[in-house]
Sequence to fold (218 residues):
Amino acid sequence: MRKLALGAALLALAGCNSTGQSDWSNYYRLMRDSFHASLGDGGVTREQAAAVPYASIGVRSNGNPELLLVLATDNDGDLLWTSASRIVLLTRQGRVVRTVGLGHDLSGQTPGSAGLPPPAAALRGPFSSTRVADFSDIGMFGVSLSCNARAAGPEIIRILGQAISTVRVDEACRNTNQRWSFVDNFWVDPQNGFVWRARQHLHPRGGVVETEILRPPG
Fold:
């Protein structure tokens, strides 16, 4: 049921459900009035982020200008982010697990039978995991990925001018059948495991998506 609810929300937020004066249309109107077309060629500024009174993230795809997305729903840790440009991301423990509106989208991702540890688990030691991904736009379903994560070392990052102490976690993934391999990076707070920034490969043809937390949830 939770997957069905998330799917319905993704479709609605992506513009596949036109219900006139629905809650979602009101939500979009508020977002549009708050920050639509307010971002330039660079990153989101402190002033732009502060003008939006919601939890928010910055998203940059394939080197394009950074977009500001706000948190629409939190379903037991599954965070649904969207924007006036109708880009939608679903994240879980810092990982992007589904997208809408990026051109090449990750249709879904399912952990292997042993589950999928959060990136912060690498702070206690290297770990291996498996997952299965779907890419409906190119007709690829059930793509199996084998991954190995490890802590690469401490790094200080800056978000909206603020220095944040993190540990970078590198996660190398590979699918032998599709000859697809990549390394994702997560910048994790060593105190609480919170992922402040991530650089992820979400699609065999989609390049890189970078995310950073501008205003944390809660």
